[in-house]
Amino acid sequence: MRVLQINAVDSVGSTGTIISDIQDVCTRNGIECHIAYATTRRRKSDITNGYQIGNWFDHKLHALLSRVFRKRGYFSTIPTWFFLRHVDRIKPDVVHLHNLHSNYINLNMLLRYLAKRDIATVVTLHDNWFFTGGCYLPELERCTKWQNECRNCIYNKRGVNRFLPNTSEKILRDRKHYFNAIPRLFVVGVSQWMSGEARKSILGNAHISTIRNGVRTEVFCPMPSDARKELRSKYGFKDSDFVILAPASKWLQNRNQHGLQVILDNLGKDEKLVLYGCRKEESAQAKSIANVTAIPFINNKVVLSTIYSMADVFINCTHMDTCSFINIESQACGTPVITFDNTGAGETVDNVTSFSVPTDDYIGIVNKIAEVKNKHYNTIEYVRNNFTMQKNYNSYISLYRGITDSQ
């Protein structure tokens, strides 16, 4: 069997890690797995069965045209043509689509090709883009227009090109036409919530299932106590301090400023709030807040695991998450999570060893912090039972084999 995965990035970020992990699981199961991507941090010689779609210039041009005409995924015609010739050569039994909305591929050309060749197609929904008129997270605006027709899109009314004609209705119409033309279409939600959204959408007639994201528990695991102590010492924390870890990308959003202040106002004398993953502009913002320790963005997974392990609790105020990797990673390192119960985020905790509270209930987070403070929770077993890379991505192997066996 031969599988081809297509994604914006290789080996970095959540989706880049996912395609690499799926390729690894495929190899272990005797499946030839190819990957196609727009960007990578690896040398091409280090990538097994890899193909880069387009180049830096084409990606920038596609981004510019997408911004001007408000139609992402409608350009990169020549790079897509060359890529489809590559697909002709490798002749995959299954094509697996991940993130295609990063200005590098012509979606209609690709879907038309898959339909014409009758290639079994798996679509993993990491967000809502495949079944909307161009947005990724309509839940943030409580928008349901994508269930019928994306007219008068609120996203299209923003920015410098807000005076141009609305394109969302045509985009959704094109998606419906081209996806429905694929004879064997299989849709995978990364959470039950995501699969439920797909059933309400233009993809509702496809075979829809749920396969949750998985982590490498040999990488994300509790770090040795000396590494934990060394990191605490580096940031000026005592062994007796209660460290509250929080993702800067969430807590520094404008809509969470009130919530952040609620957390700060209720910090105990021995409680330390750490915002991690700060990019340049976020670092300056975090450092300007009293009683907050800022940790820069981290690519090294071992270092990230040590930071998770250093903390006593992880708080995530996400308002929209299909399947929160950071919640899973933290628990894999032995640190309990407190998160909002919306979308797919609520499915990453069991409310026994980690907890969810109603969305925007910041006092609820404060109360849960107090509850967690003097107890010990075994979060590791929950992750090993529900979110390991090997277990969850073996479900893709079963899906691939089920598709090809039924041909």
- Report the end-to-end length measured between terminal Cα atoms: 12 Å
Number of domains: 2
CATH homologous superfamily of the largest domain, by name? Answer: Glycogen Phosphorylase B
Q: Can you give the mean pLDDT?
A: 94
Strand order of the largest sheet: 5-3-1-6-7-8-9
Helix content: 25-40%
How would a textbook summarize the main sheet? Answer: 7 strands, parallel
Structure commentary:
With about 400 residues, the protein is α/β, with parallel strands linked by helices. It has helices at about 15-30, 55-70, 75-90, 105-115, 170-180, 190-200, 225-235, 250, 255-265, 280-285, 300-310, 325-330, 360-375, 380-385, 390-405, and strands at about 1-5, 10, 30-35, 40, 50, 95, 120-125, 185-190, 205-210, 240-245, 270-280, 290-295, 315, 335-340, 355. The chain has 2 domains: about 1-215 and about 390-405, Rossmann fold; about 225-385, Rossmann fold. The protein has 15 helices and 15 strands. The strands form 3 sheets. Strands 5-3-1-6-7-8-9 form a 7-stranded parallel β-sheet, with helices on both faces. Strands 12-11-10-13-14-15 form a 6-stranded parallel β-sheet, with helices on both faces. The model has no long low-confidence stretch (mean pLDDT about 95).
Summarize the structure.
By secondary structure, this protein is an alpha/beta fold. The protein has helices at residues 13-28, 56-69, 77-90, 107-117, 168-180, 192-199, 225-234, 248-251, 257-265, 280-287, 301-310, 325-332, 362-373, 379-386, 389-405, and strands at residues 2-6, 9-10, 32-37, 39-40, 50-52, 94-97, 120-125, 185-189, 207-210, 242-247, 271-278, 292-296, 313-316, 337-340, 355-357.
